[in-house]
Amino acid sequence: MTTAMILSLVVLVAMVAMIMFDVLPFGMPPIAACVLIVLFGLGDVSYAFAGFTNSTVWMLAFFMVILAAIQKTSMIVKVKNAMTKLVEKGGFKSYVALLLVVMLGASIVGMGSTAFYVLIFSLVVTMPYNEKLPGSKLVLPLGIASNHPLIPINVALQYGVAVSVLATAGISESVTMLQFAIVSVFLSLGFLVWAIIGYKFLPSHPVAEPTVENAAALAGDDVEAMPKWKEWVVILAFAVSIAAMLLVDQLGDLAYMVPGVAAFVMLLIKVLDFNETRDNLFSPIILMTAGVIPVANCLADSGLTTLVGNAVAAAIGTAVPPFLILLVFAIMCSTVACFTGSTVGTIMMFAPLGIAVVQGLGYNPMAMAVAVTLSGWCGHYMPIDGLPAMAFGMGKYTMVEFWKFTIPQYFVRLLFLCAGALIVFPM
Hints:
Layout: H1 3-20, H2 29-39, H3 45-48, H4 55-70, H5 75-89, H6 92-109, H7 114-125, H8 139-145, H9 156-168, H10 177-197, H11 215-218, H12 228-246, H13 248-251, H14 253-268, H15 274-281, H16 284-302, H17 304-316, H18 322-340, H19 343-360, H20 366-375, H21 386-394, H22 399-424
Helix pairs in contact: 1-2, 1-16, 1-19, 2-16, 4-9, 4-12, 4-14, 4-15, 5-6, 7-8, 7-21, 8-21, 9-16, 9-19, 9-20, 10-22, 12-14, 17-19, 18-19, 18-20, 18-22, 19-20, 20-22
């Protein structure tokens, strides 16, 4: 290995370690890595901070502002009202309908939204007990459903991570948001299939009262209603931004700036104030996305990525099917993310390695990038952190009851995910 390779590896390891062990606030480790690039003489300042002039990064940054605005509309109240009516009706059909309602809600607020799954939990645990559809049959599946958009029109966060992953691996080519969304549909279908089958494995008992602040506040009852004309402007801005992002290949540079225009409209009509706009425009995920690009350039320019990929590929051999390679890396990534709670950091560790391996074998790396990225949000079989921990506590599940649903679900989702990645990106 050359000196440049060693120093590039040091920068990468330092960045991943800072992410996984919370040495710095989320989003800042890649910026620290950019500083190290300059200090180690791997590039000048413009090279080290090139991610902040990347067109995709700015498109995502502006879109984060739109996402903040869309979550202030009355759509979330409509989701709540629809859920209440279905729970009162009860039965298996209502259970399936509730799954679809929550997954549609996830389509709007986005995959992995903490506010949304807390909202879902708060709604379920405050509804009266109904023997036909007890809360214990709802808390776990609906909580996880909040992580699986049925119509993935809002996958900006995960898409941004996938873009960062490809950049980290030194790949200039990128997936489109439409391609990424199609793969996420397979993941959501895998969840839906198991959730329908797994209904009979869920226990039947009352659930705990919420342990999070005030349920009514979480449900959005105290949110001031937005004037209808503003709501329509927000919805139109959201739709136009999505359309532009999907048509980026046809529209060129214009597509990257459409979300920017929409973001400024949100500020002008005072749906968001300056602080909200600033905090979303330069959110931690945007700093993460921009910061890893120079790290990727170092790895690629030093030749380290190619060296590692060829070495691992030679060790694996050519007899292993592409599907199995995807599945192995998806399992490794999701398991480590599940136990550490560091989703993005874990993805940044496993995805570039997986990409290097498939490149060494002569396969298309896009399937690996997308599959491993989405797998980071697919743990849930251990009640350690966030969503699964809250579901386990509020649902009053035993460990056996929890595992009966989550372990089969874990493998079904990953099988669907890897299959979808290979269909969209044949290797």
